[in-house]
User: What shape does this take?
Amino acid sequence: MEAQTLVLSVSHLNLHSCDNSKSFMIRINEQLCNRIKELSAQVASLGVDWIEEESNRGMWADTSYGESIEDGETHDEAMLNIMAYPNKVSKTVIRINKTHFHFYGIPKGCDERSKMLTAEFPINKLDINTRFIAEGF
Assistant: This one.
């Protein structure tokens, strides 16, 4: 599997959050892809709703990939803007169910009330042979 860059939209539990992240970017390599599929299978076999695992991967950013594209930026310009404005988080977690996964993060210096959530991503899309996928914009 060729590594994929995945960019997901971000929403906030608290509209007055201390963080302004709008995009989450992560590289999905073969190891992470296999881990997601393995945990998804465990969800099914255990009969639970989801499994969570802490992750130090990915980047939370103030820039919205979708808004950048709508404003006429190229893909490369939008990606550079995401990388130019990263936000610090104290914790990033991946939550995996049978068919989808998403990430959530707690901004540095904030508590659970400021939790940020990414759009859900279908696990079966991990098998699509493409280098870039944007979801939720």
Remarks:
- Residues 4-135 form one domain.
- The longest helix spans residues 30-46.
- Residues 66 and 137 are 5 Å apart (CA to CA).
